[in-house]
């Protein structure tokens, strides 16, 4: 009779950090999207009273939003890269002992 194994979450054989980073990435994109939407609407509202400032704010929101999305992607990819390096460390240790 085979002994049932606990789920991988409780065994600590695999790290769950990449899944957490991916979840955090999508959560961060949602937060960025909501923030950009609110700032976009505020810029439109500002355009009704002062077109120049409203247009400047609108341009800043669009350019800044694109920059933040790219920066958030890079940050999450760096975290994933660090976790992949951590995954490969035991293999490198064995390979260095063999040579």
Written description of the protein model:
The protein is an all-alpha fold and 99 residues long. The protein has one domain. The protein contains 3 helices and no strands. Helix 2 (17-49) packs antiparallel against helix 3 (51-98). The longest helix is centred in the last third of the chain and has 48 residues, at 51-98. The protein starts with 7 loop residues before the first helix and ends with a helix. 2% of the residues are buried.
Question: How do the helices and strands line up, and which of them pair or pack?
Answer:
Elements: H1 8-11, H2 17-49, H3 51-98
Helix pairs in contact: 2-3
Task: Give a concise summary.
It contains three helices and no strands. It has helices at residues 8-11, 17-49, 51-98.
Query: How is the quaternary structure best described?
Result: single chain
State the total count of DSSP E strands: 0
Count of discrete alpha- or pi-helical segments spanning 4 or more residues: 3
Strand content: under 5%
Q: Spans with pLDDT under 50 lasting ≥5 residues?
A: none
Describe the global form. Answer: elongated
Q: Percent range for helical residues? A: over 70%
Number of domains: 1
User: Structural class of the secondary elements?
Assistant: mainly alpha
> What integer is the average pLDDT?
86
Radius of gyration: 23 Å
User: Distance between the terminal alpha carbons, to the nearest Å?
Assistant: 42 Å
> What kind of sheet is the major sheet?
none
Q: What string gives the helices and strands in order?
A: HHH
């Amino acid at each position: 009779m085979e002994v049932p194994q606990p789920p991988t979450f409780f065994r600590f054989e695999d790290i769950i950090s990449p899944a957490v980073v991916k979840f955090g990435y999508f959560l961060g994109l949602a937060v960025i999207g909501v923030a950009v939407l609110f700032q976009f609407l505020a810029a439109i509202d500002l355009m009704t009273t002062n077109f120049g400032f409203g247009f400047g704010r609108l341009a800043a929101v669009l350019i800044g939003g694109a920059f933040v999305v790219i920066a958030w992607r890079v940050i999450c990819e760096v975290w994933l890269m660090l976790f992949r390096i951590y995954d490969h460390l035991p293999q490198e240790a064995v390979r260095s002992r063999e040579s």
